[in-house]
Amino acid sequence: MNRTLDPALFSGLLAIATDAVIAVDHNQCIIFFNEGAERIFGWSAAEVGGEYLEVLLPQRFRAAHRGHVHGFGEAHGRARLMGERQQISGLRKSGEEFPAEAAIQRIEIDGRNIYAAVMRDISARQKAEDLLHQAIKARDDMMGIVSHDLRNPANAVKMLARSILEGPDSAQVPDNVLERVVVMGQAAQQMDALIQDLLDVTRLEAGRLVVAPREVEIGALLDRSIEALRPLAEAGGVSLDRRLPQELPTLQVDADRVMQLFSNLIANAIKFTPAGGHVALTARIAGTSMEFSVTDDGEGIPAAQLPYVFDRFFQVTHGGRAARHGAGLGLPIARGIVEAHGGQISIESTVGAGTCVSFFLPLALPVG
């Protein structure tokens, strides 16, 4: 039921609004200045009443402002957001400028235009955005250092370890030394993989993760992914099964990124599956895509935490205990790779029963 409200009620509501609510007449002289405007601009309503609106604007904008308001009244109908093309700036009584966002409304009373504007001081938000941009730049600079200054020594350790293990004098190296060299090489590989994950997450957040799709025989790629991870599964006492159709179609994907995708998901499943458990990779054709699933019968993920598993650095916890098996970057990167191919990824899990991650990748040619 609609009722006509007392104008005094409107006036009272506008007076207590935290945003600045300002009205000017057809000459752009201030006729209403609420308490929010007094707090934001530092002027009292009595001080600015009857003054031109320009007193609230920085000097460099005043010459053009009057024409802008008049033009709005002639050409833009009743209402619109201000600052669609450039930032709005206000001027406090102290002479301080501040960024703002505003909306303007034209009201016709007795054949004359009245303009009402609602303005919000966004200084705090602007400061927060500036700090965020600075933080992002600092992070990107740090990633540049990580990719160069840390990756080079990691690669050097890998090459030196390989030269000892595969060199002509390897037979003369004591077994206990060889074992240590193997561990050194594995540690360097883990460091290199973590550096790559950090770089990929940075690219994802910046929208710079690109893929170069081409026709790929997915069967051979899956075989390489599984065999590369079989030692990890055997070391953990986990059975790794390949439950795929005998004939697999060709996919239109970036082979290196998809190899990274399968490696991340399968390795993740193995790490969260106790000895005696199973991890299985399955696939089926679904329209113009192929659906893959990586399923384990491990400890599972609590339902309350499932919405966050694709967030970077998120770690699943059980009973307040973080189940740390890496940096929490595998699933965010997997999602980024799938989405870069135009696919979708999802996860289902039950505590004590296991987890299933499913995703879609495009076929090279329609099937059927």
Question: Got a strand count?
Answer: 15
Beta percentage is 15-25%
**Whole-number count of domains:** 3
Largest sheet, strands/sense/barrel: 6 strands, antiparallel
Poorly predicted residue ranges: 1-5
> What is the arithmetic mean of pLDDT?
82
Categorize the overall geometry: elongated
> CATH topology of the largest domain, what is it called?
Heat Shock Protein 90
Q: CATH architecture of the largest domain, please?
A: 2-Layer Sandwich
Instruction: State the helical fraction.
Output: 40-55%
Radius of gyration: 32 Å
Order of helices and strands: HEEHHHEEEEHHEHEEHEEEEHEE
User: In CATH's first tier, which class of the largest domain applies?
Assistant: Alpha Beta
Protein architecture, described:
Helix 7 (218-235) runs parallel beside helix 8 (255-271). Helix content is 43%, strand content 24%. The chain has 3 domains: 7-121, PAS domain (Beta-Lactamase, 2-Layer Sandwich); 144-205; 214-362, Heat Shock Protein 90. The chain is built from 9 helices and 15 strands. The longest helix has 44 residues, at 123-166.
